[in-house]
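Can't paste images in this forum, so I'm doing it all in text. The chain is below; anyone willing to post the predicted structure tokens underneath?
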Amino acid sequence: MRSITLKLILSFLVISLIAIGLMAFFSRQAVVRRFDTLLFDQAKVYFSERILEIYESSGSLETAAKSIWESNNTIVPSPPEGFGPHDNFVNQFAVTDPQGKVIIPAGPFKSGQIVTGKPFYEGTALIFNGVEIGRVLDPGFPIERSKEQERFLEQTSTVLIYTAIGAVAASVLLSLLLAYSFTRPLREMTAATQEMAAGKLGHQVPIRSQDEIGQLAQSFNRMSQDLANATQLRKQMTADIAHDLRSPLTVISGYLESMADGVLKPTPERLTLIHTEATHLQRLVEDLRILSLADAGELSMTCLAQPIQPLLEQTAAMYNHQAQQKHVSLQVEADSDLPVPNIDPDRILQVLGNLVSNALRHTSEGGQITLSATRFEKGLRITVQDTGEGIPSEDMPHVFDRFYRGDSARYTNEGESGLGLAIARSIVEMHEGSISAESEPGNGAAFHIDLKMD
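Text version of the structure:
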């Protein structure tokens, strides 16, 4: 049985059949018990009324008993409608006097027997003019049903059977509808996965409910969209890597080929250019290696308690010469008594270097870059802020994407690989921290690194 729809239908059907069968059985038993109780109570009431009628005319319970037995067990010419034969009707009940002596025997109660205790007190009192003249005792077995009564119970059973058949039919229909409703989203997701397997990524399925199946559909849609985005990013990244590798290789191979052919002479300037392009190529390959290791969780780190201010000052010293060449002010600001984070200083220096390098590329002459450290909630916040051109709002969600080229803030020039911010995010996240950016076009940008403290 491979179809979940069929499994659901059979499950619903089996449960419905069991429930309906049990309900019909217990309903039948309850009806029979209630019907027999009703017959018994009616017979007792009628019998008691007849005894009182005879007692009223004779004034003696013994005379009433003698009158009943002399009438050959016949109380009236015809019993009430619905009762059984006379001989079964009259002899059902015993009658005692107020002291418990059996006047009219029936069942286990014999004539002249003295009845006491529970059987006596559970009997029905015969009250005449406010005085108890005797008791009617239950013999402990039901009234025998007449043919009309048996026919009535058979009709009741037939109604129950037809009702059960109707309920089964309704349960089959309901199970079909429920099974179809439950499995419809699964069929849609199955079709969507087949579409995705055929290369149609980003396929979405309709969300028809807010239950677990609806949540599954939402998760599937997110996964499908993320897969489509990741595939598109991979394609774009592959094209960007190919472009960034091709450019320096073209320069290097062009110069070397010309020198080999004797068209150009290997002058110091030309060799320096080849060396610069080779260095750029080496940096790109190294950045790609770092990202691949970070993605695989294999990027080595050696964390230790390290004050952050020396790292800020070291980063400023490393880039101070470039800042002076561009006439950009590079400053360090750190609060006193900062918490000491547990970090890998070399990796954090790499992150700070990438952020400062990015800031230098987009800060005009006369601008300022500030490296600062402050307390932030339960941790430490490191900020690299510049007064450059800023980042357009539409590009803010993508500034940490690899090779994103939404605007000039992501162009790879001046020997940069275009992976600096992506590497920075990976390293910060490996420190269980977070990195974010904020900017207003024309008013510079600020990159925040938040490190949690234990």
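The chain has a mean pLDDT of 82. The chain has three domains: 4-92+143-147, 212-295, 304-452.
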